[in-house]
Design a protein that fits this description.
Number of helices: 11
Order of helices and strands: HHHHEHEHEEEHEHEHEHEEHEE
Oligomer: single chain
């Protein structure tokens, strides 16, 4: 409610309403024991009536912490970002922390300095920045000593801890699976060029094939959406030598499957298909897509832990391995 004048109620307003000193109001606000039950009830009633909220700044001076972590997010609607946010929220809840989230604007290049300045204005103890594309100031960014900062990215920063699913190693899992089934003629469908995740998945794929003495064809490129996967799949269907396709996410993999079937090819009897992120299991009837599953909640929990307790230990780089989930879109390569 506030005061009759419309301004925010102060400690002095509460003291007047309850007929006590401001010092007594302060004791009640911080939960001190040296206040009688009757006085405490009177002060709490006055706080409720006036809509008084103790200052977070004052609480932080007493406790040395705001008990809140900041999250600067870009495109929070993405599957990976939502699942990671769930992990951050879980960890915060268990630690008795709040999460203060700011969705950064899409216009213009991403800037870590801008995200840091925004969060320094807010009552938070640490900062987590989601970084699906490389920030323009990534190599020059210096985190504020007052704000431990953790970056969600595969890129290694010299001053900030980074946390991510192993976007490079997941391609090795796929290569192991497909070559173990006898596949040698394989194609890769990459995500957008600006995507850090796609960049590392492509690099991991090239290195994995090279280590096995296999050629890595130039990738077809999509935009993470199923329609772009369909376009790539239609192009791949014209090359009847291809026996397997690895798409950089599940949505594109689904598009590839649809295009191959529309072209008269069987999945997996003629062409095997693998995706990444296991994002369709709850929405695609029957499931069926072989994919790599990441523990994205663990990604969020680890980022929270570093932001509130471990960011001062230096530039640690945590990579959480994925797990191959074998379903019905992969099988032994057809005889040539």
């Amino acid at each position: 409610m506030g005061t009759r004048s419309g301004r925010t109620a102060s400690m002095a307003d509460v003291a007047r309403a309850a007929g006590v000193s401001q010092q007594t109001v302060s004791r009640v606000a911080r939960g001190a024991a040296n206040v009688s039950d009757a006085t405490r009830r009177r002060v709490l009633d006055a706080m409720r009536e006036l809509g008084f909220r103790p200052s977070s700044a004052a609480r932080s001076l007493r406790r040395g912490s705001y008990r809140s972590v900041g999250l600067a997010a870009y495109d929070v609607t993405e599957f990976g970002n939502l699942a990671t946010l769930d992990g951050i929220l879980q960890a915060a809840r268990e630690a008795g922390f709040a999460v203060t989230m700011v969705e950064m604007p899409d216009e213009g290049p991403m800037s870590l300095a801008r995200a840091s300045r925004r969060m320094l204005e807010l009552p938070v103890d640490g900062l987590i920045v989601g970084m699906s594309v490389e920030a323009r100031d990534f190599s020059t960014f210096v985190p504020s000593p007052a704000l431990p900062t953790v970056l969600l990215t595969m890129l290694e920063h010299p001053l900030c801890p980074t946390v991510d699913s192993d976007q490079y190693g997941c391609s090795g899992l796929v290569a192991d699976h497909l070559t173990g089934l006898g596949h040698r003629e394989m194609r890769f469908v990459a995500g957008p060029e600006a995507s850090v995740d796609s960049r590392f998945r492509e690099l991991g794929w090239r290195d994995a094939l090279r280590a096995r003495g296999l050629p890595a064809s130039e990738p077809l490129r999509g935009d993470w959406g199923a329609d772009s996967g369909y376009e790539a799949g239609a192009a791949i269907a014209r090359d009847r030598a291809v026996t397997a396709v690895y798409a950089a996410n599940d949505q594109m993999a689904l598009g590839v499957v649809c295009a191959l079937r529309d072209a008269g090819l069987r999945v997996p009897e003629d062409v095997s298909v693998v995706g990444v992120d296991d994002s369709l299991v709850a929405t695609l009837p029957g499931g069926g897509l072989t994919t790599v599953r990441f523990d994205l909640a663990a990604r969020g929990r680890e980022a929270f832990s570093l932001a509130v307790g471990g960011a001062g230990e230096g530039a640690r780089h945590v990579r959480i391995p994925g797990t191959l989930v074998e379903r019905s879109t992969t099988a032994a390569a057809r005889p040539r």
